[in-house]
Each structure stands twice: as structure tokens, then as C-alpha cells.
Design a protein that fits this description.
Elements: E1 3-6, E2 27-32, H1 36-45, E3 50-56, E4 69-72, H2 78-85, E5 90-93, H3 100-108, E6 112-114, H4 117-124, H5 126-135, E7 143-146, H6 149-153, E8 161-165, E9 175-178, E10 192-196, E11 200-210, E12 215-218, E13 222-227, E14 232-238, H7 244-261, E15 265-274, E16 279-285, H8 295-298, H9 303-311, E17 325-331, E18 338-339, E19 341-343, H10 345-349, E20 354-358, E21 363-364, E22 369-376, H11 380-393, E23 395-397
Parallel strand pairs: 2-3, 2-5, 3-4, 5-6
Antiparallel strand pairs: 1-12, 7-10, 8-9, 8-10, 11-12, 11-13, 11-15, 13-14, 14-17, 15-16, 17-22, 18-21, 19-23, 20-22
Helix pairs in contact: 1-9, 2-3, 3-4, 4-5
The structure holds adenosine-5'-triphosphate and magnesium ion.
């Protein structure tokens, strides 16, 4: 089922592509951040005439050796981001924690920014993000904003709830479950959102591509299965198993969301389906996302390929699935910190239709995302069987304890 749509950005009208266009010059495109997302974006860049730049503090980062130009610097510093971006045609992000003021200035000077700084500003801060959903009647869990622990302590009647740091949290580290009065002290003593706890039936995600001319493509939603202990994605199945009426709710909500964000780019929307089949937006990421990694092998145009098409102002690709897929995230085994070793890798490499992605991080630590494995099969049972084999057989450890 391919879903398409369109939005019109009046401010971009001068940049609309003409019916036939010529690719005459290498565009200079910068990525803020050099982690695994930047690395996979660069893997897709080699198919296109683009000169790539990475800004990142860590010269050993996963993307450093794959770009044309590595610039060491702080993605949160105005000076570093501005100086990095000012000679570029376009700039994108692999993480939300970047200096928005510099991106705003670059945008006014004609650098194309994906996503638009205005959309990034909303998403970067969980308080603004939830207020945005409320303002545009995009279904989401009810919430109150708390500035500190004293304000949280007044919310006994709102429990059970989930407390989320307004900014700076990642991979579940800015999220605390507050079940009862006794848990209130475990919350954040900083600006945060307190959300009603949802009775979740399943968690799903979908990737949406929005071009500068307003074309939209939806990837098929995926089922996300979480590791309750680490609050990290354990594995993911594509396509998600959803009753048709739930699927259409998801599609309508996602469409409204990207229309109101008014920005080209790749967006990942995480949603909850509750026990009554209500669909609620959990959060949005304005960038390529873990929940779309299967698209490298499982879709005609991957989320990374699609982002290049958006940035380079090419026609959008085809997001349809070639085959159903599963992803297992490879995370650092608990109890091991130090140089990374991949125990059981040989057995996984022997498996058919299984694709290993190791991110090239030298050091492992508990819960650190070190890679992922994609499995393709037309049989869901086979996908699940291989997920279990890989989860049990492949471990990221260190010989140094
Ligand atoms: N309102 C809620 N009710 C019930 N469970 C929730 C709620 N909000 C979050 N959770 C659970 O906590 C998990 C992490 O929450 P969330 O996605 O907001 O955090 P995160 O730190 O951004 O995670 P990540 O960066 O890995 O996506 C969710 O995937 C879900 O399992
Ligand atoms: Mg999340």
C-alpha cells in the first residue's frame, strides 16, 4: 500500500524544480553530527554528485573517514555551526541537539536547512513538541508541564504518568516512569513534561519523506518491540501488523503532523496504539531514524537515499517494501566497557538474507548502540526465528573487563 500526498511551501516556490533539470555541479552538503546516522547517510551519498562535510567533536566518530571534509567542532556552538555552514549549499542534522540560532542565520543567508530550523525548534524541546500536538489537535497523551521537583510533587492526582526531560534526553535516558506518590522524588528537577501513562497495546513508527516542493511519501509503519530494562528498541518488524482502521488512523495523524510542521525533510513518528485501538503520537524525530534502518535493504529507496533526494531537490524515491524485514539492534552487553568485540558474528554472517551493520565505534559500553542486523523474509515466522537466534547468539562485549 503506497501512500502519497502533497503540501505546498510557498517560501520554497522559487526553488521548485522545472519539468526537466540538469545536474551540473557537485552540491556541498554538511551534516551536523558524525554518529551512525551520519555514517549511513554518507554510504548513500556516494551514489550522487555531492561533496560531503561533517561537523563533529570526535575525530574517531563513525562517519569521520567517510566524508570528503571532516571539521572538528561543537554542533552546539553558534560559531562552529555557523562557520561550518556558511559556504555550503545545504545542511542537515543527525541529532536534534544542535545550535538552532546558527541554522536560522544560515537559512536567512540562503543555505537550505533540512529540517527547517522552525520545525527543529518545535521538536527539539519536548514541552514545545507536546504543545504543538495540542495546538493542532494531533492525538497525544494528556500532559502537564513541570519546571522542577516541587511542581512535580503537586501532580499526585495525575499519576500514573511518565516524566520526560524537555531536552537533552536520548535513548530513554530522559524518561522516568512515575507510578505513584513514592516515585515522585525520582523525577527530573528541571523543565519537563509529565504525560499520562498510556495502556499500550503496541508501539509503532513510520518514516515520512517531505520534499521541498511539498511531495510526501510514507514508508509502511513498523512494529517496535522495546527492551523494558534498557528502554531501547529490542527489535523491529516491518510491516507492522495493524487492523486496517488503525492503519488509516496512523496515516491521517502522520499526514496532519507533517503538514503542520511545514518543513521538507525526513520525519520519524513514533506512535502508541492503546488497548482501545486509539492512536497517539509519542514523539517525532526530524531526521533519519533507527526505526527506518530496514529500508536500506527492505525498501526500493532507503530513508538515507530519500533524504539525499530531498536535499539535492531530486524527485522522491519509492518507499515501498521489497520484502518484509526485521531489525535487531546490537547494543553493548551489560558488564563490558572497553574495546568492542563481536562474539558470534561468524554464525550470523553465515545466515541467508541477513545484513550486518557495524557502526565502527571503537569502545563498547552497556546499552550503547553499536550496530544493527537486518533480516529479510517473506515469512514472519522466519523473521522472528532469526531475530531470536541473533539476539541470543550475537553479543557486543570487550575482552578488557
Ligand atoms: N505516555 C506514555 N505512556 C506509557 N509509556 C510511555 C509513555 N511515554 C513513553 N513511554 C515508554 O517509554 C519509551 C521511551 O519514551 P520516549 O520515546 O518518549 O523517549 P526517548 O528518550 O525519546 O526514547 P528514544 O530516543 O529511544 O526514542 C517509549 O518507547 C514507551 O515505551
Ligand atoms: Mg522514543
Amino acid at each position: 500500500m503506497q501512500l502519497t500526498g502533497g503540501i505546498y511551501f510557498s517560501e520554497n516556490s522559487s526553488r521548485r524544480s522545472t519539468p526537466s533539470f540538469y545536474i551540473c555541479q557537485m552540491k556541498k552538503v554538511g551534516i551536523l553530527g558524525g554518529g551512525q546516522l551520519g555514517r549511513m547517510l554518507l554510504q548513500a551519498a556516494i551514489n550522487y554528485p555531492v561533496e560531503t562535510y561533517i561537523l563533529e567533536n570526535d575525530a574517531q566518530c563513525p562517519a569521520a573517514h567517510l566524508c570528503h571534509h571532516f571539521i572538528k567542532g561543537d554542533i552546539n556552538s553558534f560559531e562552529d555551526v555557523y562557520n561550518f555552514g556558511k559556504g555550503l549549499d545545504a545542511i542537515t542534522i543527525e541529532i536534534e541537539g544542535v545550535n538552532i540560532h546558527a541554522l536560522e542565520k544560515l537559512e536567512t543567508e540562503g543555505v537550505l536547512v533540512y529540517p527547517k530550523p522552525a520545525a527543529l525548534k518545535i521538536i527539539k524541546n519536548k514541552i514545545f513538541q507536546k504543545e504543538f500536538y495540542r495546538q493542532y489537535q494531533i492525538p497525544t497523551s494528556d500532559f502537564v508541564v513541570t519546571q522542577n521537583l516541587a511542581e512535580l510533587a503537586e501532580q499526585v492526582d495525575f499519576l500514573p504518568a511518565v516524566h520526560k526531560l524537555s531536552h537533552g534526553g536520548y535513548d530513554g535516558k530522559g524518561v522516568k516512569m512515575i507510578k505513584n506518590k513514592e516515585d515522585l522524588g525520582n523525577g527530573f528537577d528541571a523543565p519537563a513534561v509529565l504525560e499520562k501513562k498510556i495502556n499500550i497495546k503496541k508501539e509503532i513508527a513510520l518514516i515520512i519523506a517531505v520534499s521541498s516542493t511539498g511531495d510526501i511519501r510514507f514508508y509502511t509503519p513498523v512494529d517496535m518491540v522495546f527492551d523494558q530494562r534498557l528502554h531501547l528498541l529490542s527489535h523491529q518488524l516491518s510491516p507492522a501488523e495493524l487492523p486496517e482502521k488503525v492503519f488509516w488512523k496512523v496515516e491521517a495523524i502522520a499526514m496532519k503532523l507533517v503538514k503542520e510542521l511545514k518543513s521538507p525533510g525526513i520525519f520519524a513518528v513514533e506512535l502508541f496504539v492503546d488497548i482501545d485501538d486509539n492512536v497517539l503520537v509519542n514523539e517525532t524525530a526530524p531526521r533519519v531514524h533507527n526505526s527506518g534502518h530496514h529500508s536500506i535493504e527492505a525498501c526500493y529507496s532507503s530513508q538515507f537515499d530519500m533524504l539525499w533526494r530531498i536535499i539535492l531537490q531530486y524527485p522522491l524515491g519509492n518507499p515501498d517494501n521489497i520484502l518484509p524485514a526485521a531489525i535487531v539492534n546490537l547494543v553493548g552487553e551489560s558488564g563490558y566497557t572497553g574495546p568492542a568485540c563481536y562474539e558470534g558474528l561468524e554464525e550470523v554472517l553465515k545466515m541467508d538474507n541477513v545484513f550486518v551493520h557495524i557502526y565502527g565505534k571503537k569502545e563498547t559500553k552497556p546499552g550503547r548502540k553499536m550496530g544493527h542486523v537486518t533480516i529479510l523474509s517473506s515469512e514472519r515466522q522466519e523473521l522472528l526465528h532469526k531475530v531470536n537466534q541473533i539476539k541470543n547468539g550475537l553479543k557486543v562485549i570487550s575482552k578488557e573487563l
